[in-house]
Amino acid sequence: MLYLPRTQEETDALGQPLLDKDGEPKVRHFGIIREFRLFNLSQCDGLPQSLSEPFTRPAEPVEMAEAIAMNSGVTLRHRRQSKAYYKPATDLVMMPHPQQFESNEAYYATLLHELTHATGHASRLNRPGIAGAERTEALYAAEELVAEMGSAFLCAHCGIQGRLQHASYIGYWLDILRQDKRAVIRASGMARHASEWLLNAVPQPCQLSA
Fold it and tell me: Which UniProt keywords apply (predicted)?
């Protein structure tokens, strides 16, 4: 499934652009989802032998994730504790020590999750789940969905196979989907914007893979 983010200027009944409080055109963000059917190599005949050879990932996935963290502008600290978290009030990501994780990739997958949260700070993308004054269970669950999807996008971009944290939030997300079936589309769009923000902060930015 492919998500394509789109933007469109809002207009009134006469086709005139609507302006925000700063006099700028209001822009509506939306997405288009396209489905593609894929087949496993074992289901195909007559393909070149080279396609069956094991895929070798680049040798520097951890270095790519480290570059994202170093250029994010977010303060990163470590403490011997069981959980990682982002603190918006001080713009701080607090992580357990790397050796507390089962692997380097698990550490960086968690770090990318927290850095996705950090993009919601008022000085960056200003997401309601991070920068908003309101604190509700629904906003918290929605923000966690953005962070999980953002982490998944960034892990795929870096070549990291980290364990995602979505199991504990599935109940919340199902409740959100029952109330709003477009919630996943919006969350995916926000996660993509967050991922691209982090990638563009790296000295040699590169576009997030589709």
Answer: Nucleotidyltransferase, Transferase
